[in-house]
Amino acid sequence: MAQDSGVKKGAMGWYFKTNLLARILIGLVLGAAVGIILGFFPAAVKPYADNVKFFGDLFVRLLKMIVVPVIFFSLISGAASIAPGRLGRVGLKIMGYYLLTSALAVVIGLVFANILKPGLGMNIVGDAAV
């Protein structure tokens, strides 16, 4: 019998043979092109956008939900791979680095929010019945 060498065949065979970076860049370019083209037809896109908004919101919430466990378990697995004698020094360095980079991210976010002032000029009216 002939052995399958792991090469995918069929309609999507070319897709799986290409490099992952090439596939990501092709998706990026195609997504940007479709977004620009559909931006000229807002009335035609609105019903579709309203119907798929739930999935976009769900995706963003799932991404937010996974951030803290990924960071936590990456710190745990890194600490578990270090010898117990060195864990004290390295653990303090890891926690210090984590706190420093988190503080730096907050500072960068606050600086850019104060410079760019996102949402300035938007007339958002809340619910007065509350």
- Please state the structural category: mainly alpha
| Global outline | flat
Relative strand content? under 5%
Element-by-element helix/strand order: HHHH
Low-confidence stretches: none
How many domain modules? 2
Count of individual helical segments: 4
Q: Nearest-angstrom radius of gyration?
A: 24 Å
Helix content: over 70%
Distance between the termini: 73 Å
Question: Count of DSSP E strands?
Answer: 0
The whole-number mean of residue pLDDT values reads 85
Query: Main β-sheet: number of strands, strand sense, barrel status?
Result: none
Describe the model:
This protein is an all-alpha fold. It has two domains: 54 residues; 39 residues. The protein is 74% helix and 0% strand. It contains four helices and no strands. The longest helix has 39 residues. The termini are far apart. The mean pLDDT is 85.
Primary descriptors:
about 130 residues; mainly alpha; 4 helices; about 0% strand; flat
Helix/strand layout:
Layout lengths: L12 H5 L2 H19 L3 H39 L3 H33 L14
What is the gist of this entry?
This protein is an all-alpha fold. The protein has helices spanning 13-17, 20-38, 42-80, 84-116. The chain is flat, with a radius of gyration of 24 Å.
